[in-house]
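Posting for a labmate who doesn't have an account.
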Amino acid sequence: MPRIERLWIKPAQGAAMEPAEELTIVAGDGVAGNKQQKRHVTLISAERWVEVMNEMGADLDPGTRRANVLISDIDLNETTGRTVRIGEVELHIRGETKPCHQMDAALDGLQEAMRARWGGGAWADAVTGVTIRVGDDVVLD
């Protein structure tokens, strides 16, 4: 069963992501307390992260990606328009999260390696909100 493996919040622009055991999702706004909410919630696939790390011969923490939610057992590739449900939270996937220059600051060539098959993950609008936690089940509709 797909589930949340890890959670992070961005306390300030350019700051390191802070690990969290839970995040409050606010409908129409995103992750409460997250510095940048242009993209309400950002998601990455645990398996896709491992693939990219294997391709690069690296072992960086998935928090390097700077996403809010690490999900296992879901392929986010080409999921625009689909819905992710985490308990009562409904997230509408709006598109791919393109890897930025900060990926190359972490590891030379990482930005390019993440471009294939949505390696940078997806971003979603928060349609409904509530607190989500590490270990919560995830459904991709």
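Reply:
Got it, the structure tokens are right above this. The CA atoms of residues 78 and 118 lie 7 Å apart.
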